[in-house]
Design goal:
This protein has two helices and four strands. The protein is of the alpha+beta class. The protein has a four-stranded antiparallel sheet with strand order 1-2-4-3, covered by helices on one side. Strand 3 and strand 4 form a beta hairpin.
């Protein structure tokens, strides 16, 4: 995975609730799997496919759940990395 962060979005409610963006490049055949896993963690992150052919996805997540998300991604990385 190749993470890239951008400026936080506006989720309203303060810095702890601000939405963060994380761009990842994963194996294209694993996009649906990652989406499925994230759906099991209510409110952890929302995955949007930016370019399916290259495996580029964007995750939007609350800043307050960043540690949990990065921990999960660390565990999943070996199976997602192109």
């Amino acid at each position: 995975m190749q993470p890239s962060r951008s400026d936080p979005g506006d989720a309203g409610g303060g810095p702890a609730d601000a939405l963060q963006r994380l761009y990842l490049r994963i194996r294209c055949e694993e996009i649906a799997y990652l989406r499925f896993i994230l759906e099991g963690y209510d409110g952890l992150a929302v995955l949007s496919t930016m370019d399916a052919d290259s495996g580029l996805v964007r995750l939007l997540y609350p800043a307050s759940r960043g540690r949990e998300l990065f921990s999960l991604l660390g565990e999943l990385a070996p199976g997602l990395t192109p």
